[in-house]
Amino acid sequence: MATLYEGYTLCGVGPVQNSSNIGILGVEQGRDIDYVLVTDSSRSITVYKVSDQKPTGSWSVKQGQIISCPAVFNTQSQEYVVVTDDRVVRVWKEDDVNLEKAFKATVSADVLRVLSATDSEPVVLFCCGAVRFLDSLLASPQQPIEDVLTEDEIIRWSTIVKAEHQLVVLFSTEQRGEHCLYVQRFNPNTLVKHRIETEPGLSAPISFSATCRGSNIHLLYLYLNGSVYESVLPFRSSSTGAEGVQALSCSLCLSLPLGEEKLMSGAAVVLDEAHVAVIGFPHPSAGACKDYLCIWNTHFQTLQASKEMAGRIYSQLWCYSGKLYVPHGKMLSVIPFDCQKSSLAAAMGKLKQTSRIFFVVCFFLVHCIVIMIFFNRFFLLFLQNVKSALTVDQLVEHIKTSAVEDVQAEVGEFIRRAPQADLQLAAGRVALELVSRSQTDANFYPQCAFLQLLETRYLCYSVCPELLSLAMVKKDFHLCQIAFQIFSDIPEAVTCACLKAILSTPDLEMETVNLDTDSVIFMKELTQAHSRSDEEGGQLNGFCPPALESDVSDTPSNKLQRDPLSLDMSCPVGLHKGALLNEVLQTAYSDRSLLPHLKDLTVPQVIVFLQYLRFLYFKYSHDAHKQIRALRTPSISQIIDWVCLLLDAHFTVLAVAPEAKRLVFDLHKFVRSQVKLYAELGKIEGSLQVLKNSKQSEDFGMYAIQVIELF
């Protein structure tokens, strides 16, 4: 058995540069299993922490330079390696900011790939077929590189496998319709050439995948006709390569079903000894023009799991640490998977039973069959009077033509009746069809159906990217709010678009929107709550807040001696708008990606948003929010982070805009007072450390007096 779990978006896919370049050059393993290194075809290399779906580092080459191959991570030296402009090898560390200032060396021949394996030195593979270890190459960059391949022989695929602390480099070539596999072993250094032999009439393999199991290398290659072949090579070989080209025998291990449309590309990756992931080939029971990621059992020729992929499929697939990385549409998705031990019972979707249970089940089934035959007529009559549940294909067809009320009823019925495993796969397909018709038919908008699909928790932004955009066009802020609560992969551009739509909607119009009750109650109680500082005469935890500090030097007049934040602490927006802004504050984002989109906000929108953040911070700093019970509330750190981002994005405008002067001055004074507070705390840090480190005398009785000198 195998399972594909709910996926999520790791990053966007850049625009296609040309017909052979699809936006992502490669995805490589990072410094540990939770990090990957994504190289795009434009000019950038980015490290992502997969569990957080956030970039931790990014580097770019200059305009006019080209990244020639995917960057890799050298686990031995804890450095990154990439090749630019075919011959320039660049090496840098995590804390290096500018790639141009990092180490670089120009070699004497064109480099095809840098191949890296865990706890091993990277290997450089040249376009001519020669290989060098990275350190030996950088020690003498201009060393001559021998030609292993003939002039018209081209490398189509390459990889590196490791077992028993030994490395083996594999690469396939094509020359006038003939396909060969080269196996480069080290210690001893041997290169063996194999001729790939398959059935007559087959075109070139479109995808390769290699793994090492035991003492053998298992190589799988996929053809456009759906055939998946396997060849087995010994990890250690006595051959020296002097014997000439050797035949590489293979066996057919899987035949994929083909649809009516002509296939142009595809990809396959070995998951374990019995399972292979395939993309670009049709689902055996799905409709046309649908792209699926499938896991097949090669032992029993059965489909074990599948997941529909929205958008264009690029026929690229990577697998690291139980996760599949799939570029599709405008995103790179991460899809966790799990494969159980292969058995015939598991492959057929049945649990393994003992012989005793088997006979009991058989006995029971025989009696059931007798009963069913006896009551067959009554059973058929019953079925005729009971409305059968729609299949997902039937539901999709009904969505295209039925009225809104009928569609919403049918979607609700489908969600209630469909098994969870089927619903997980079908939810995205149904949502896409609903969105598609809503975009073309102005009178069709099934809000209840969208909300029901969201409540299944089987939707995410990457499954139905147009849903949020449609909700904003329809000004369905209730749907936006639920989506913000459920979706964890909303792109920063969409987050800012929703923020702009919320800020641009008048408060009176927003108050008519039906929102989550808990969020509105939180806003209502927050605006009415009295802070503890008011009840304690302006003091909180024994500290007089900066609002009451006297600082004549920085105030335009003595009238401004009072707390700038207490001058007008009424909420600057309505309750419903505040509830929606709170959802935006809790959305996951990357500073680097969010900042450019924040610049699209107008000055009035920025000022209102900053005023609301100031209101929240004042309430939070006086613990007003702790008096309110609510399921979802922004944290004080999230509030501060958004204030910093807004100031970074609009610093120049806010500095010169007259209407922002009062707000910026208030924020400045409050921050300065906080700095003073921390400075005072820093003065007694040494004394507190003495108290912490002081050792009490052990020879004292019931009572003792100890004198401690504080400096």
TrEMBL record:
SUPFAM superfamilies cross-referenced by the UniProt entry: WD40 repeat-like
InterPro entries associated with the record: NOL11, Nol11_C, NOL11_N, WD40_repeat_dom_sf
Ranges where the Nucleolar protein 11 C-terminal domain occurs: 406-711
GO BP annotations, alphabetical order: maturation of SSU-rRNA
UniProt cross-references to Pfam families, sorted A to Z: Nol11_C, NOL11_N
Keywords recorded for this protein, A-Z: Activator, Membrane, Nucleus, rRNA processing, Transcription, Transcription regulation, Transmembrane, Transmembrane helix
PANTHER family, alphabetized: NUCLEOLAR PROTEIN 11 (PTHR15633)
Name the record gives this protein: Nucleolar protein 11
Record organism: Cyprinus carpio
Lineage, opening ranks: Eukaryota, Metazoa, Chordata, Craniata, Vertebrata
